[in-house]
Design brief:
By secondary structure, this protein is mainly α. It has helices at 2-18, 24-52, 58-85, 116-135, 144-166, 171-175, 183-201, 217-236, 244-272, 277-291, 300-325, 333-351, 367-400, 407-412, 414-419. Helix 9 runs antiparallel to helix 10 (277-291).
Length: 426
């Protein structure tokens, strides 16, 4: 009898220990991190992109990014979150168990003691910025109506499955793929979707012979600074706790971005004989992209090499690669986000510290095995994103009677023809 009582008490103590308690520190940090990531889309990325756009399209560019955030947030809460993080169908996508957040309430806690509602909000900001990144490849020639339909479909059938595969209990997560804050899920995914859409919609009128001057590089630099600021929530917040790993991710994020900005300025000097503000801002973003999948896994040496490499491959992508193949990636979403994200995803396997690897081959000392898992995750992301983005854009185009605006609208500018407004009144 005494043995049974002791056994029950032991079981109860273990069960109690496994039940998370509200942690006010982690809750405060995750709410702050969510707010920082939110700032990245309708402020940081919107300014970064619209400043690089011609004046007659600046407002439309801002509106595409802004709408991606608001529409994406609605999609995420209603069904996107459920498809990414509940259930598991063939290791590829979740189910609709938590549609409309059914089964989740304000008392539910994550394992580190912050509310599940905050986790939903945090992950929703990632979904929104991912599709917003893709807009950078197709601005100045895309119907706004087509874009809205595309956002809904793409988040449902492209982003949610990729997020599930890597973060939500899918087969890449089971294999041990390391993606601390979104190298494959966000940057490769969004950047590649942008290129696919750009190729399908076609080039802007006059590209590449007509010079297309940015409306305000100062706005672009301000947008880059806001992105950098928000990225601390993006990367350090992905630890889901206010702890030492979050602190490490915070520093490595800042260090890699600064390293990449310096590298791009040096490359500007080598190629053009002068450093440019646009180049420095682009380099910082490339470094932020590259360190994203590795932020919580690497030390100073890894962050240094990843930052330099992200800048070099981004610079190569927006200069040489784009010039050779002549694709019209309007604001270089593919060159900066996909290519730097690709480098970062693979480099994570190379430079991740064994002591920080939470899962997968590296946790057991198998470095080559981890690198191969990283390559597998890259291949899966590329294949799935290309095929599904093409299908989704085709459907959106059929619904809206074509994705590309008329030549007359393109000449007049999308600010006036799509919105009846002007970004700048000179």
């Amino acid at each position: 009898m005494l043995f049974r009582i002791l056994s029950l008490l032991a079981f109860a103590s273990f069960a109690f220990a496994d039940t998370p308690k509200l942690n006010s520190g982690n809750t405060s940090w995750m709410m702050m991190a969510t707010a920082l990531v939110m700032l990245m889309t309708p402020a940081g990325l919107a300014l970064f992109y619209s400043g690089m756009t011609r004046a007659k399209n600046a407002l439309n560019t801002y509106m595409m990014v802004f709408s991606a955030y608001v529409v994406g947030t609605v999609v995420w809460v209603l069904w996107g979150y459920s498809l990414a993080f509940s259930g598991n169908i063939a290791g590829i996508i979740g189910d609709l168990k938590n549609v409309f957040l059914n089964g989740i309430n304000y008392t539910n806690l994550q394992s580190s003691g912050y509310p599940s509602f905050v986790f939903v909000a945090f992950q929703g900001t990632f979904a929104a910025i991912t599709v917003a990144i893709a807009s950078g490849s197709i601005i100045e020639r895309t119907k706004f109506s087509t874009w809205l339909v595309f956002v809904i479909l793409w988040l449902t059938f492209v982003y949610a499955p990729i997020a599930h595969m890597v973060w939500g209990g899918g087969f890449l997560m089971d294999k041990g793929a390391l993606d601390f804050a979104g190298g494959t899920v966000v940057h490769m995914n969004g950047g590649l979707a942008g290129l696919v859409a750009a190729l399908m919609i076609g080039k802007r009128r006059g590209y590449p012979k007509t010079q297309m001057m940015p409306s305000s590089i100062i706005l672009t630099a301000l947008g880059a600074a806001l992105l950098w600021f928000g990225w601390f929530g993006f990367n350090a917040g992905s630890e889901f706790a206010a702890d030492n790993v979050a602190g490490s991710a915070f520093l490595m994020t800042n260090f890699a971005a600064a390293t990449a900005a310096v590298t791009w300025m040096i490359l500007d000097y080598i190629k053009f004989g002068r450093a440019t503000l646009l180049g420095a801002a682009s380099g910082a973003v490339a470094g932020l992209v590259a360190i994203t999948p590795a932020a919580g896994f690497v030390g100073v040496v890894g962050a240094l090499i990843i930052g330099i490499g992200g800048s070099i491959i981004g610079f190569w992508g927006v200069t040489w690669l784009k010039k050779i193949f002549k694709y019209d990636d309007s604001l270089d979403a593919f060159g900066v986000h996909f290519l730097a994200g690709l480098w970062g995803a693979i480099a994570t396997g190379i430079f991740a510290l064994q002591s920080l690897a939470w899962n997968g081959p590296l946790k057991h000392g198998d470095r080559l095995g981890q690198i191969w898992v990283q390559i597998e995750s890259v291949i899966v992301t590329i294949t799935f994103t290309v095929i599904m983005t093409a299908i989704v854009l085709k459907i959106a185009s059929l619904i809206t009677g074509g994705a590309k605006v008329s030549e007359e609208n393109e000449i007049e500018g999308l600010d006036a023809t799509q919105h009846g407004e002007k970004g700048f009144n000179f």
